[in-house]
Model the fold of this input.
Amino acid sequence: MSERVRNLVALSATHRTAGLDERAAFTVPAGGAEAFYAAAREAGLAEAVLLATCNRLEAYGVGDEAAALHVRSALIKATGASPAVLDQHLRPVPGLEAVEHLFAVVSGLESQMVGEVEIAGQVKDAYADALARGMTGPVLNRVFQRAFQAGAWARTHTGISQGQVSLGNVAVELAQRVFGSLDEARVLVLGTGDVGRQVVQALVSRGASQVSVASRTFENARVLAEEFAGSSLTLADALRQAHAHDVIVGCATASSRARSTVALRESVARRQGRPLLLVDLGVPRNFDVAARSLEGAYLCDLDDLAAVSNANLKARLAEVDRARAALAEKAARAWGAANHQASPEA
Done:
């Protein structure tokens, strides 16, 4: 068992190693998690956790000296990406460094929007999924549980999350920069997943009173809209009525873009000079990047939102450095405890 501990490894592909469109090539589709864990078991990994978000593909594994290769194979199965494409962006993170990395991830220090709050919940969900599948054990249980404690400490005792950084809040802040007050703005949110819910909640909390929600599954749109006193549409109807909205936020997880440049050009023309703000939170993209060239349309993507969020990062760099130093100490203690717990003498 102690041999397994020495071969804890993480493989990580994020905004640091891949651009926005490159990340789209290795998203995890429906059924991808099942494929990952099936491959992990077949390869003989003792423990494994898959973490997949719009900006991050990571897996943590515990096994023999070939653990990194086994994790890589499982990620290829999960994403369907070619090994050549995936290998360009995957970074191996071994042992104690993997623990330090996980602590920093949970705390938001490794996020594209430094200090974001969503990532902690996403990691908890990923760990809970692996736990329910019986794919965690003494090493990853200890490491992930300590990571959650360390993340909570960092958010409470340092200033890394000043302003409650989240995709929803930053997207709404960007809309306010364009339109000022959102009281009269008509906003359309495409997608009803976690990000869509965060955006709708942030919009309503900032005073937006004309929010429509659309989804391929109308019932999902209806439930979310009713919760926040908004209106609901099918995705097809929403796209036909795009011109009637001032802000369109794309949060849908789709294999094809929600609106082509041609369709967006028609929507802009029908607005008769009124600006249209497109906020694309999708990976893959919800809107064709060529929409940036349309006069009267303003397209912002995840990279733009990160720039807005990190604009005041310099003021928080001291807090980030302080958090990293403290988290490194906590990671070392957790790694030592995991080694001791998994050793035959423990």
Q: What stands out?
A: Confidence is low (pLDDT under 50) at residues 1-5. Residues 317-342 form the longest helix (26 residues). DSSP finds 15 helices and ten strands in the chain.
